[in-house]
Write a structure and sequence with these properties.
binds magnesium ion; alpha/beta; 2 domains; Rossmann fold; binds adenosine-5'-triphosphate; six-stranded mixed β-sheet; ABC transporter transmembrane region fold
Length: 583
């Protein structure tokens, strides 16, 4: 059913800043409704005067009044549309912004389990469905109901027989429409659900074009597409049938009412009970009654849609981040110590899900560089995600700068702890915007300075238009190595106390590799670092080594002493050739 409280809260909350405009709009809408009732009266007067043989001097003022009323009515209609759009867009844009802000603060678990398409649908699709609701839905439903009642009263006053007949007919049709509405709404919901499924499917396919083509899976994908379409077609047909049934009902009412008006009108006129003007008036009001009925019907459909949207919007707003802020400690400047205290972690909170990290403990002194080694799937990237607090551990604690990560202000933490991941996300924008994340306060001079300090001038010179070169989204446009260089510059700009480097396992060309090596040297100066290394060259930078296996620490210690100890896993790793052993 319609969640009245949620409606009210959203409605008042988002309309408050626009109250003067909303009041003005309501006033205008009410005036336009009243004006609609006036013109038929003028026509009746005109007809009756004309039939009675009044001179033109008596008729012209009536005609002028009619035109003035009509023009005012049109002007007000334009003005009210303008206001309604303005209020609707301002209120919904605010809601979009609030939802986006909220979603950006949710944990990674939420983002992994919600597809981007679904999020777009919730933040934009659902909110768009609320635009009409914010601006004019309620006043339109009330206003049109008032108009309908006004018309019926005027009909009763003119001739009670027609009034009674039309009232009974209208009431009956409304009851029927409500019934029908209840039946067809679930049909519409089915259509929307399948549409969402289809969009999600298409989005996935476009994303995976390269893999699908390369694996010759096009046929299978098309047949899945076909299956969804097959499911969709009967739903759409049924949905439109429902719509047609409602439309027929309301058209049926319209024609029956006109028939009544004509029959009674001609009969009463013949009997001398009604003037010609009155017959016209009755006919005009009956025809006019059709409009508010249609509008109320449409608004009710909109209201239902808005109800579903409000439920989803409220649900999203009510979703709490798994990252609980308990305190707001601010981290000091300079390199920070990191400590894992018996950390146990699974990606899915539900019991039974695979444990990814089990009782992981290690200690990193400020300014040390730690090489984190382990086979693929051993949990290295997971450690990195816990350090940057993308997730919360289920057991134990991650301590940064001496404080448990959940006690540290999250914005501050994200500022002081930087990560370069295996796949760098690029945005469809210039290199400059990709480096600064669209922060205009960072000047080109600062950028050049940072690039120079990272010794990446050569890289910058190799870009076709320097900082203005356009990049594609995803990882398009740059090689893996170049993307990593860009990511380093991003990190360097923020000057963090902790750097986590999840090295790309792909091999790089020697020139890029040399650039990367030098940049890493600069990046690690005076910072605590965790290097997730796949290459010997990277490991040799580390002061300490931590080796993971199946989510547990199987060895940790100073690199030099581990290297010297022939019994250590690390020295055996080096002996067998790390690059082979770790793949
Ligand atoms: P690689 O060297 O290949 O990068 P890794 O050591 O970084 O491997 P992780 O990415 O930390 O390994 O993954 C550890 C385990 O957690 C794997 O079993 C993986 O399947 C699982 N895992 C990783 N990411 C997720 C996720 N988002 N949701 C659920 N499970 C995940
Ligand atoms: Mg990884």
């Amino acid at each position: 059913m319609i969640p009245v409280r949620a409606y009210f809260r959203l409605f008042t909350g988002y309309l408050r800043p626009h109250r003067p405009k909303a009041v003005l709009l309501s006033g205008i809408l009410l005036i336009t409704i009243v004006l609609q009732l006036v013109n038929p009266q003028l026509i009746k007067l005109f007809i009756d005067d004309a039939v009675a043989g009044e001179p033109a001097s008596a008729l012209v003022p009536i005609a002028i009044a009619f035109m003035v009323v009509a023009v005012i009515h049109q002007l007000l209609a334009v003005w009210s549309t303008f206001l309604a759009e303005q209020i609707g867009w301002s209120a919904t844009n605010q809601l979009r912004a609030d939802l986006t802000d909220h979603v950006l603060h949710l944990d990674m678990g939420f983002h992994k389990s919600t597809s981007p398409g679904a999020l777009i649908e919730r933040i934009d699709g659902d909110v768009t469905a609320l635009s009409n609701f914010f601006s004019s839905m309620i006043i339109k439903v009330l206003g049109n109901s008032a108009l309908l009642i006004g018309i019926l009263i005027l009909l009763w006053m003119e001739t009670w027989t027609v009034g009674l007949a039309i009232t009974v007919l209208t009431a009956g049709t409304f009851l029927g429409l409500f019934r029908l509405h209840g039946v067809t709404v679930p049909w519409q919901k089915d259509i929307r659900a399948t549409a969402a499924e289809l969009n999600g499917f298409i989005g996935e396919q476009i994303d995976g074009t390269e893999d699908i083509e390369a694996n010759g899976a096009t046929g299978f994908m098309l047949s899945r597409f076909d299956a969804i379409e097959r499911k969709w077609l009967p739903q759409v047909v049924r949905g439109w049938t429902g719509w047609a049934m409602m439309w027929s009902a309301s058209m049926g009412l319209y024609f029956a009412s006109l028939a009544i008006a004509f029959t009674f009108g001609s009969w009463l006129f013949g009997a001398g009970a009604l003037t010609l003007g009155s017959v016209y008036l009755v006919f005009q009001y009956v025809e006019m009654a059709h409009r508010p009925i249609e509008q109320i019907r449409e608004e009710l459909i909109d209201l239902q849609k808005a109800g579903a949207s409000i439920e989803r919007v409220e649900g999203l707003l009510a979703r709490q981040s798994a990252l609980v802020q308990r305190d707001t400690i601010v981290l000091p400047d300079g390199p920070l110590p990191i400590r894992f205290d018996g950390v146990t972690f699974r990606y899915d909170d539900e019991a039974g899900d695979e444990i990814v990290l089990e009782d992981v403990s290690f200690d990193i002194a400020p300014g040390r560089v730690v090489g984190l080694l382990g086979r693929t799937g051993s949990g290295k990237s997971t450690v990195a995600r816990l350090v940057t607090r993308m997730y919360e551990p289920q057991g134990g604690a991650v301590r940064i700068g001496g404080s448990a990560s959940w006690d540290i202000d999250i914005v501050n933490l994200r500022h002081r702890v930087a990560m370069v991941t295996q796949d760098v996300q690029l945005f469809r924008a210039t290199v400059r915007d990709n480096l600064t994340f669209f922060n205009d306060s960072i000047t080109d001079a600062e950028l050049h300075d940072v690039i120079h300090r990272l010794e990446l001038d050569e890289w910058l010179a190799s870009l076709p238009a320097g900082l203005d070169s356009m990049l594609e989204s995803g990882s398009g446009g740059l090689s893996a190595g170049q993307a990593q260089l860009l990511a380093f510059t991003r990190v360097f700009l923020r000057n963090p106390g902790v750097v986590v480097l999840d090295e790309a396992s792909s091999r790089l060309d020697p020139a890029t590799e040399a650039l990367l090596e030098r940049a890493v040297d600069h990046l690690l100066e005076n910072r605590t670092a965790i290097l997730i290394a796949h290459r010997l060259a990277t490991v040799s930078r580390a002061d300490d080594i931590v080796i993971l296996e199946d989510g547990r620490v199987i060895e940790c210690g100073e690199r030099v002493s581990l290297e010297r100890d022939p019994e250590s896993k690390f020295s055996r790793l080096l002996a067998t050739g790390m690059e082979e052993a770790l793949v």
